[in-house]
Design brief:
six-stranded mixed β-sheet, alpha+beta
Length: 161
């Protein structure tokens, strides 16, 4: 998740005070064995298992139970929260991952697209740079992110591996 979207979901603003920023770190990371695809008619992606792909993302630390509850509601029933292993990046390469230098392996929680909803995914990968350039502004406005989110239908949480 892009840090600005995280702050908007968890704190209702993308430009949080330094005291809140100090609570969290965001480290570039790779999730092996998954692909990030476009969700038909949506701005956001869904990741699904795929042994031949890797997903670039952020490893976030400092998350509280309250943060996780808000994220579960935000992600909703289309997703299952799973515990996985990611590789932190010591150096970030280009958009295709050329030049990435992988470092430490960490356990992380990710939202995997629920198998019951996979027919909603397109056959092409989701483009993070396109999202940042053209759509992120919509997702980082105060009060916006919970439009249409149902607190009675949060993401499912799988037992830790």
């Amino acid at each position: 998740m892009v840090p600005d979207v995280f702050y908007t979901v968890c704190y209702n603003q993308s430009n949080v005070p330094p005291e809140i920023k100090a609570l969290h770190t965001f480290t570039p990371a790779i999730l092996p064995g998954y692909i990030r695809r476009r969700v038909r008619g949506a701005d956001y992606p869904g990741i699904t298992p795929d042994k031949d792909h890797k997903v670039f993302g952020m490893y976030a630390s400092g998350l509280t139970n309250a943060n996780m509850n808000k994220l579960d509601i935000f992600e909703g029933g289309q997703y299952v929260r799973k515990t996985v292993e990611v590789k932190l990046l010591e150096k970030v390469g280009d958009v295709k991952g050329e030049g990435n230098v992988e470092g430490e392996t960490k356990k992380a929680e990710v939202y995997v697209f629920h198998p019951d909803h996979e027919d909603e995914l397109e056959d092409r990968e989701w483009d993070l740079e396109e999202f940042r350039r053209e759509k992120m502004q919509r997702w980082t406005r105060a009060g916006y992110v919970f439009d249409g989110c149902d607190p009675n239908e949060p993401a499912k949480v799988e037992a830790a591996v």
